[in-house]
Each structure stands twice: as C-alpha cells, then as structure tokens.
Design goal:
The protein has helices spanning 2-9, 16-48, 57-69, 74-124, 127-133, 135-157, 159-178, 183-226, 228-233, 237-262, 265-290, 295-336, 398-403, 428-434, 449-453, 462-471, 475-478, 498-510, 528-541, 554-557, 577-583, 585-595, and strands at residues 357-364, 375-382, 387-392, 413-418, 421-422, 435-438, 447-448, 488-489, 516-520, 546-550, 562-567, 570-575. It is α/β, with parallel strands linked by helices and 601 residues long. It folds into two domains: 2-336, Up-down Bundle (ABC transporter transmembrane region fold), CATH 1.20.1560; 357-444 and 500-595, P-loop containing nucleotide triphosphate hydrolases (Rossmann fold), CATH 3.40.50.300. The strands form three sheets. Strands 6-9-10-3-11-12 form a six-stranded mixed sheet. Strand 11 (562-567) and strand 12 (570-575) form a beta hairpin. Bound molecules: adenosine-5'-triphosphate and magnesium ion. Magnesium ion binds at residues 398-399, 440, 520-521.
Amino acid sequence: MFKNLRQLASYVGKYKIYAILTPIIVSLEVVMECLIPFFTADLITYVQQKYVVSDAILTKWFISFVESIIPGKPLAVVGGYCILLILMALTSLTFGAVAGITCSKASCGFAKNLRTELFNKTQDFSFENIDKFSTSSLVTRLTTDVTNVQQSFMMIIRTAIRSPLMFIFSILMAFIRGGSMALIFVVVIPVLLFGLIFIAKKAMPIFKKVFKKYDALNASIQENVHGMRVVKSFVREDHESDKFGTASQNVANDFVRADKILAFNNPLMLLCMYAVMTFVCLFGSQAIVKGDIIIGEFSALLTYGMQILMSLMMLSMIFVMITMSAECAKRICEVLNEDATIKNPPSPVYEVENGDIDFVNVSFKYSERAERYALSDVNLHIKSGQTVGIIGGTGSAKSTLVQLIPRLYDTTVGQVLVGGKDVRDYDIVSLRDSVSVVLQKNVLFSGTIKDNLRWGNENATDAEMERVCTLACADEFIKTFPDKYDTYIEQGGTNVSGGQKQRLCIARALLKKPKILILDDSTSAVDTRTDAMIRKAFAQEIPNTTKIIIAQRISSVEDADLIVVLDDGKIDSIGTHSELIKDNAIYKEIYESQTKGGKME
Ligand SMILES: Nc1ncnc2c1ncn2[C@@H]1O[C@H](COP(=O)(O)OP(=O)(O)OP(=O)(O)O)[C@@H](O)[C@H]1O
Ligand SMILES: [Mg+2]
C-alpha cells in the first residue's frame, strides 16, 4: 500500500515546495495552539493566587518583560496576558490560512500532474492494453480515483502532520501542567488504536470491491450516452434506466456496508473522549479539593485533553481516507506501471520503402488467455500498388487481419511484413503514417471539417484538402454546406450523415499520402454509384498506393487485382472475381445472394 503511495508522491513535481512548506507551517500552527492553553492556565493561576508568579521559565520571562515596561501594576500583567493570547490566536489563524493555501496548491498541482501522466500513458497504450483495462475503468481511474488520492495527499501533508504533532505536544504539555493526572490520556490510546485497526481491516475489502462497481457504473453511463440515439430508436430507455439503477444500487449498497463499519469510528472516539473527560473531572476536582493542583492547571489539562482526543479523531479519519484511497492508488499505479504492449524497437527503421504487404504464417488471438485464435495460418502476399478486396461473413476476422498491418495489434505467431520488413522493426509513427486505415468504427471529432481533415496532415493546404475530398467524393456535399470546409462537426460527427461521415474519414486518410490505404467497410453507407466513383478515382489518382478494401458488397471488390475470401479466421481462397466465381463456394454464394433477380443494388 505504501509502495503505491510513495510512487504517486513522486508526481508532486514542481509543487514540491508547497508540499514541504505545508507541514512546516502546520507545525508552527500546532506550537501556537498548544501554547495558548499554557498561557491561559498561567493567567488564571496568576489572578487566582493574587498575582503570585508561577515557576515556568516562559511565564517568569513574560511577567518580568511586562513589569519592565509598566512596573508595579499587576493589572498591566493581566492586560499583557490578554494581548499575548490575542496575538497568539491571530498568528495561529494566519498559519492555518497560509497552510490551507499551500496545501491546496500542492495537492491540486499533484492531481494535475498525476492526471496528465495517466492521460499520456493511455495515449501510448495499444488496443490490447485498452482492451485489458476497458475504457470505462480507465475513465474511473483518471477521474474518481485521482480525486480520492488527491484528498488523501491533502490530508497527509496537512492533517497527518498536524494530528500526531498536536497529539505529542498536548501530551507533553498535559504532563507539564497536570503531572501524573495526564496518565489518564495514555490509558485510552491502546483502546482507541485497537478499535481503529479493527474497523479499517473490516472496511478495506469492501472498498476494494466498490471501485470495481464504479467501473461498471461508468461503463453504463458511457455506453448509454454514446449510444443515446440507438437507445431511443429501440425505445430501450426503461431497460437502460434499470441497468443503470442496478449499477448505481450496487455502488450504494457497498458504500452503505462500508459506512456501517466506519460508523463505529465516531462513537468509539466520543466514548473515549467522554470517558477521559469524566475521569479528568473526577480526579481533578478531588485533587483541587486536596490542594494538589490549582484551577489554572486543571483548565489547561481539560483543554489539552480535548486537543489530544481531537487529534486522535483526526488521525482516525485520515486512517479511513488512506484506507479508501490505497485501493485507488493501487488502481492508478496499475495503469502507470502497465507496459505498452506495442513499443518502438531499439533501432527502428524510419522509411517504408513501398506498399508491399506479406503475411507469413500469421496466427493471432486477442489476448494470451483467449482460447480461440481469431486468425489462423494466414499467408498472403500483396504487391505494392495492387488493389485487394477482402470479403467474408461477419466475424470472419476481416478487421482483425488488416489491423495487423499498421501494428494496431501484434501477431501472436508469424510475421507481417510491410515494404519487405517486419512491421515490428519500424518506428511506429513512420509505419502508421505510411499505412492509413479507415477503421470500421471511425469517428470524427468536434471541430470544423478542416480541423478533422488536418488529422491526416497538420500542414495540409486548402487545395490539398479539396483534392482529397474530391477523390473521396466528399467535395460535392461539403460545397452545399453554407460554411463549406469551415462547417462545424459536432462531437462524434452527429450532424453529418453516415455516408458523409465515411467519405470525410476516407478523405482524412488520403491526406496522409499513404503507401497503403485500408478501407474497412468504409463505403457501406455510401450509394453504389458514389462507391464506384471513389474506386475509379483511386485507380486513376493514386495508382501506386496499395489499396485494401474490405466490403460486404461484391460490387465493391469485383474489379480488384486480388480478392481474399475469409472464413472463420482462415483464408478460404484468393483469386480474381472471375476465378472465384467459378471455384469458390462462399464467394459464389455471396455473389448470388446479392444478384438474385438481377443486381439488388
Ligand atoms: N477487441 C477484441 N477483443 C476480443 N475479441 C475480438 C475483438 N475484436 C474482435 N474480436 C473477435 O474476433 C473475431 C473476428 O472479428 P472481426 O471484427 O475481425 O470480424 P469482421 O470479419 O471484421 O466482422 P464484421 O464483418 O462484422 O466487421 C470475432 O469472433 C470477434 O468476436
Ligand atoms: Mg470488421
């Protein structure tokens, strides 16, 4: 637990100065707070014993100081005490306020650094890493978990310094002022410690579970908000509400269970506090009657007793908070310590020579634990500049196959070569710049059309953007928008149609001037005429680019140099349209189903 907290503490970075200043200022505040009852007791004693000076060095020094200014007037000493106490209270207040500011600067800065680091880390994650954590869990870790750790950090540098210091000082002062009566405070400590450890041990396992349920809650929100339109069109609001309700109830139940245990914390504290006070009053009053101690010392003892118990109470709260955030810290460290599964090789190749692609005995499964291979024994050789169609039923691993080319996943067995070299030998950025993929689940981001296109090339000129949009048949509809290329695209591209979105995604991919262009079902929402126009433009304008087209429609791939038929993760056949239509049962079946009664589209 402490290993994780220590690792996280290193993210304080430039806010370290505030993290160091806070405990120092807090210590000064504690000293002031402990001196106030000391002088108050002196004042009471001084007045009660008809201006007899006590033995304490501080007191003697203070009284001789006041008498040197106004000699022979005991009331001036009383006034001096009042001024001193007010000054001490104000100083303590100022220290408290300054510590509050430095503490908040340190903890907010720490949380900012931690979030940034986590975010940057997730940017380096491969698809496999993301699959492992799940998106919703990553969101919880970056938000709720960081907030909890931030609060703990705040407590550690402020309250966790203040409470033990206050405790030690108050015990010391209690012994100085109250003598052996202060032993009452010592007796109660083991009782409290035992109680607190017992409570924390019981609550810890519940907190462990509750954060997993938080992930489920976030998953439910994310999925619902993301798919709101589908939810509405299928009138699934009630079902979704129920699902969310269950996830929310689960979190609530666990918190209630944890709180039921933690609820003993406060009563236990109060029980000890009142028991101690009762004993102090009982023995104290007897001692006063016997003349063993005087009222001033008794009042100091009561105040220190309060401070001791308050600091123990704060310590117990810190204990709970740290118990809770230890689990969050662990979850954050899991992300920080996760090795990106796809990394640059030690001496990477920066130049992709051409668009040749070779799959050599490739088998692939999505995770080590998966029983089934998504792809098995794939051997495929594509020459630079060729157009290759990939066809097959849903789930036949078409998308899986092409995701291996830009190294979105690494092969489990075998090799994928691009331009004659293993994809694992390339610098990832160079490889992905040369291999442009229009993913099946593509997204546009909020911003203008130009902003979105520039994802393909930051420095693209207007003329270049228009050229690629013409190639992707997007120019024709962009020109009909009032703001043309400056039209604002809403988050997720909700204000453009499915077909328009696909064409914008193709244009964006083309802007990279890739050596290999992969379209994963990217024209499924585009009408057949426009689909044909796009393919024709590709053939004429980018003849040297290797083009891989995954499609459900035979018409999208029939002109291709090669067509690969995939079936259940294996290559069933490779050939041209005319060859496959003769020899391949699957291809023939798809063809016939689409042409029954003439061309269906
Ligand atoms: N991220 C993933 N994690 C685990 N399994 C996956 C993942 N993505 C896909 N699969 C599995 O791999 C197999 C192939 O999926 P893939 O998406 O490649 O099929 P596809 O041919 O592209 O289908 P479609 O035509 O529907 O797009 C399926 O059985 C699928 O369940
Ligand atoms: Mg697919």
